[in-house]
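Suppose a colleague, Dr. K., hands you the sequence of a protein chain of 241 amino acids and asks what its three-dimensional shape might be. Before reaching for any lab equipment, you can write down a predicted structure in token form. Begin with the sequence itself:
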Amino acid sequence: MRVSYPHVFLVSMVLLFLPGCSGKKVTTKASSQPNKYQIHKIALIPFDTMATPQAVSSKGPSLPIPSGARRSEAPIAFPPMRHQGVQTTHVVPPAAGEKVTDLMWGKLKTRSGLQVLSPGDAAAVARELAGGAAPEIVPAHMIAQRLRADAALSGKVLVYQERVGGRLGADPPAAVGFEVKLVAPDGMVLWEGNYYERQRPMIEDIVGFFQRYGMFVTAEELAAYGAAALTDAFPFGGATE
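The predicted structure, expressed as tokens, is then:
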């Protein structure tokens, strides 16, 4: 099989010089006191899912794209429609939280020098501390205290829409968005991360097009990409092995 070197060079140059053409899919924010805490063991709390329905149009969800983990601490108002041609009203599947949790756990466990306690351990402690109430109300820092962890990582899935179609064409394509927050036992927010992507055709996202090998992927595949990207940006532990 002959390799077209000019074509390979063209693709490489496109990936090098057009990284921002699709917008920023991953954003992070770290504490202003990173050296105050030594993080070697974290508790991974099972992710929640947002229950508010989202109106999804050809231009994406009318709900604002997630802007940080603090959004999950306040009620989210459903805004008026911004676009015409709304295709569907989408609700995040409850199972999406477990799926994204497992993806994050699998990635974080590969970081050297970092022990990640299982989501099951955190869930058991949350139920115990809740005392019969909903375990979701238990603050993350209390779970970290009980498990004697250096911090606890919580998260929420805000968007999880499966593609309609196949790898060669989808309408609508898959869309995934979730946020994570790392909290110390004293309640200090150490790090926040945010991922959102709605897959787009090549003319709108040439970098993403080549990253996906020119195919429309599933929501789980997008979520796996987001988990890997946030893990790479995680400020504690060594680089992914």
